[in-house]
């Protein structure tokens, strides 16, 4: 019973992050209640499968650490952009290819990591967070195109939810603080229910049991720009997961080797691949569960296996998934401000030390974030370029990411740059 309670605690800590991704993406793409219920259910189920793949180590995959996997927020903006431009099937075609890419490079990714130092990954995370904020603001008003957009009721619900989350985060301690977003969503939905703004039809219509449906949204389609975007997202997720792996290795007193990391990356690639197959999402290691582990001192893998089994069980029950789809759009928008703001703050946290380190890093951040935000706001800037070039320029996240990678190579990896640095150091010594 104690182990089950500890497993449930881990589930609650990651639940808001898990369900928000399908809710946000599904709402942005105009999915029906039935489609949204499937999306949430399959996402929860696949979070459990991905977690167990990672925890139960074997010679081919799984890092064997008490790590919880969930859908990455890094993918939200790109998936909405891809779905809006090419349709839902293009999202899953891109996810499938990115999963295969991760599996293919898992053995050598440790060597590729130098292409993605904190100045690059921090810039990408910051760009993604910034491009998500308009989605949150639109939802706070009631959803883009809503007849009551910006009404006093919508504004009250969205800001009330955000205020409750802030207050809880400020004054709560321990586990309650770690689930502030989840509690905020529940309280906001209850308040909306008292106003008669919650529709339970989706819950009534949802079945009690269902099985995963391969390619639920149709046969995947493949677009180069979508594939490139999701591959970049997968790379950023791997870099983030690497930090989680080392943090957990430190907590569990286990020194990680290259093969351990390769197995972890391979498990993550398999999870992404399965997500594409069942129309779920890309997955990454969740840092909030690492914080919970540090807080409780409980670091047994068996607890995380229980969490994974709980997630899989919940994923087979659409009634429970449908409960999440009744959250009113303004309530969701209020919580999204906090969640997406945390994505931006995580990017800034990654960038802070590297900007102080050198003026070159500051230039990389300035150009990549500026390019990413600029192309997002004014996507028609490169409309007259050949289509082959527009693959890199039509999406703000891709444009910003490529800018960061190229400038990092220019400033920090070209032989001439290194030579100049050595000369400068010798002159200082003299």
Question: What keywords describe this structure?
Answer:
single chain; two-stranded antiparallel sheet; 2 strands; mainly alpha; 430 residues; transport; globular; 74% helix
Question: Please, could you describe this protein's structure?
Answer:
With 430 residues, this protein is an all-alpha fold. It has one domain (1-412). 74% of the residues lie in helices and 1% in strands. The protein has a two-stranded antiparallel sheet. The chain is globular and about 65 Å long. 50% of the residues are buried. The mean pLDDT is 84.
Catalogue the unreliable spans.
none
Shape: globular
Number of strands: 2
Give the domain tally: 1
* Main sheet: strands, sense, barrel: 2 strands, antiparallel
Radius of gyration: 22 Å
Outline the secondary-structure elements.
Layout: H1 2-28, H2 33-55, E1 69-71, H3 76-86, H4 88-105, H5 109-112, H6 118-140, H7 152-171, H8 174-178, H9 180-194, H10 201-205, H11 224-251, H12 258-277, E2 283-285, H13 287-296, H14 301-315, H15 318-325, H16 329-357, H17 359-377, H18 387-393, H19 396-412, H20 415-429
Antiparallel strand pairs: 1-2
In short:
With 430 residues, this protein is an all-alpha fold. It contains 20 helices and 2 strands.
């Amino acid at each position: 019973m104690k182990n089950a309670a500890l497993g449930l605690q881990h589930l609650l800590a990651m639940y808001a992050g898990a369900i928000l991704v399908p809710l946000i993406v599904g709402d942005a793409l105009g999915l029906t209640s039935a489609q949204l219920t499937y999306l949430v259910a399959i996402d929860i189920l696949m979070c459990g499968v991905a977690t167990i793949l990672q925890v139960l180590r074997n010679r081919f995959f799984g890092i064997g650490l008490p790590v919880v996997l969930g859908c990455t927020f890094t993918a939200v903006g790109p998936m909405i952009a891809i779905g809006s431009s090419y349709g839902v099937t293009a999202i899953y075609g891109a996810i499938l290819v990115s999963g295969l890419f991760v599996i293919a490079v898992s053995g050598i990714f440790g060597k590729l990591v130098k292409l993605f130092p904190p100045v690059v990954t921090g810039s990408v995370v910051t760009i993604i967070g910034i491009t998500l904020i308009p989605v949150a603001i639109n939802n706070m008003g009631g959803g883009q195109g809503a007849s009551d957009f910006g009404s006093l009721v919508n504004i009250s619900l969205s800001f009330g939810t955000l205020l409750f989350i802030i207050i809880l985060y400020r004054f709560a301690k321990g586990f309650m603080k770690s689930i502030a977003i989840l509690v905020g969503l529940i309280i906001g939905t209850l308040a909306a229910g008292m106003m008669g703004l919650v529709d339970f039809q989706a819950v009534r219509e949802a079945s009690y049991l269902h099985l995963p449906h391969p390619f639920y949204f149709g046969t995947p389609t493949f677009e180069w720009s979508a594939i490139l975007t999701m591959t970049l997202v997968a790379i950023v997720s791997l870099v983030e997961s690497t930090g989680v792996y080392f943090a957990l290795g430190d907590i569990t007193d286990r020194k990680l080797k290259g093969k351990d990391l390769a197995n972890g990356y391979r498990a993550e690639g398999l999870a992404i691949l399965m997500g594409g197959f069942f129309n779920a999402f890309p997955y990454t290691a969740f840092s909030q569960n690492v914080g919970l582990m540090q807080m409780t001192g409980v670091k047994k893998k068996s607890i995380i296996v229980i969490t994974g089994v709980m997630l899989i069980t919940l994923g087979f029950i659409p009634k429970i998934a449908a409960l999440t789809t009744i959250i009113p759009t303004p309530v969701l928008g209020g919580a999204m401000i906090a969640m997406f703001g945390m994505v931006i703050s995580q990017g800034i946290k990654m960038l802070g030390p590297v900007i102080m380190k050198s003026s070159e890093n500051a230039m990389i951040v300035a150009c990549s974030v500026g390019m990413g935000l600029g192309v997002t706001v004014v996507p028609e800037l490169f409309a007259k370029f050949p289509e082959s070039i527009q693959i890199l320029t039509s999406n703000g996240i891709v444009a910003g990411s490529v800018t960061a990678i190229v400038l990092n190579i220019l400033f920090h990896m070209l032989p001439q740059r290194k030579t100049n640095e050595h000369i400068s150091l010798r002159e200082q010594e003299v």
